[in-house]
TrEMBL record:
The keyword Protease does not apply. The keyword Membrane applies. It comes from the Bacteria. This is ABC transporter ATP-binding protein. Belongs to the ABC transporter superfamily. SMART domains: AAA. One of its GO terms (molecular function) is ATP binding. InterPro entries: AAA+_ATPase, ABC_transporter-like_ATP-bd, ABC_transporter_ATP-bind, P-loop_NTPase. Keywords: ATP-binding, Cell membrane, Membrane, Nucleotide-binding, Translocase, Transport. PANTHER family: ALIPHATIC SULFONATES IMPORT ATP-BINDING PROTEIN SSUB, TAURINE IMPORT ATP-BINDING PROTEIN-RELATED. Residues 30-244 form the ABC transporter domain. Pfam families: ABC_tran. It comes from Caulobacter hibisci.
Amino acid sequence: MVQPRIRRRAFDTAAPSSTPIASPAVAPAVKLTGFVRQFGENRVIDGLDLSIAPGEFVALLGASGSGKTTLLRTLAGLDPIGDQDVTTPGARAVVFQDARLLPWKKVWRNVALGLKDKDVRARAEAALKEVGLGHRLDAWPSTLSGGESQRTALARALVREPGLLLLDEPFAALDALTRLKMHDLVLNLWSEHKPAVLLVTHDVDEAISLADRVLVLNKGKIAAEEHITLERPRAPDARFQAIRRRLLGHLGVEAPAPHEGALIAFPTGEAVQ
Ligand SMILES: Nc1ncnc2c1ncn2[C@@H]1O[C@H](COP(=O)(O)OP(=O)(O)OP(=O)(O)O)[C@@H](O)[C@H]1O
């Protein structure tokens, strides 16, 4: 396979003006200027500008087919970019919706995949302990639950000490409770290691709960941006709901007023409107 060319060059030190974490002297973890991606006649990304500060947690929302994965794949270096202005200076790691573990390798070997040092088992073990899987080092991937598989995928990403962590709907296939636990885990790992994060998600609440900044992708460009300054952990209070309504509006979805038309299920199975 021809390796995509992601330019890793010295770039201007101007920090993104709108990011809360950026300091003027710090180079961004991601910088895209006027980026275009086209499949035949389909111009999916159309002159997109994006800057992510080191350590910043950004979530990306957008309708199905709006180009979220295309953008993430570009930043991951998985797609050719031609001679375009894309800079991702540090190490990158990606976690997808499915864990993509090699079934013939034990859990720790999946995490250590591609590492070259002598102490790879120790590093894999440390990463697996961090995601709460220190007891499953020698397990086979087929014996893991969905949540455990995604934890393993997170450990595999973390062990590479990425400056940029790309998350493509990593919690979408998990049940609601496991998803909430994964949110806590990701926030803990992020505050411990502080990579820049780009999280692609369909879930507006997930985006508001986790990110410093939420972007809405529409017609190939960033159509809206919300800075989330609520303290973590974030409760779905009135300020949260106001951000939610604005983001849903940008996505073309009308948010129901609280409880309006909502079905409330009781433990008896009885439901009232
Ligand atoms: N390799 C490809 N060849 C041709 N078209 C592609 C290719 N990859 C993506 N596309 C098209 O680009 C558009 C954006 O796809 P992409 O997967 O980035 O959207 P998305 O926002 O991630 O969608 P979803 O939320 O449904 O996952 C779609 O119309 C898709 O069909």
